Amino acid sequence: MYCNHISSHSTASSSTPSITSPLSSQVEELKKLVEETQKVAAEGQKVAAETQKVAAESLNLARATAEDYKIEKAEWQKERKNMIISMSEMAAMLLSTPTTTSTTTPTPTGSRDPLRSTGTRSDENYEKYREAKREAKKIVRKARAKVNQDLYARLDTKEGEKDIYRLA
Fold first, then answer.
1. Helix, strand, coil tally for the chain in percent (to 5)
2. Domain for residue 99, yes or no?
């Protein structure tokens, strides 16, 4: 039996090279696949490193742009504030100039109740009030009549006719 085993062993050794050749070819294929995978992984790492560099540059550019925007915004706000201050100073200068009102005539001020100022409501005071009111109305009527007469006299001239066409 030992002999059988040896004879079978000798036949097995002759068949071993035929089994190892497909295995070695598979191992070689696997090695090639591993090498290709390693190359692809290395290229992926290079691309990732380049992408990371581009992202860092973009981030730095965005930060610089944001900083420039903040500076520019601060400058505009400062300019706006200065404009408001100068405009308020100019308005104060313009409004503080005194106007000459001494040439105008003082206007009388009246109250609703003309007899309230005297404190008495007598018939005599009421008659004085009515008389003064009539006189004031007469004066106003005369002044209006004079103005109207002057206006119509001017309109009767050639220059007045031109004025009428301008008004129309």
1. 80, 0, 20
2. no
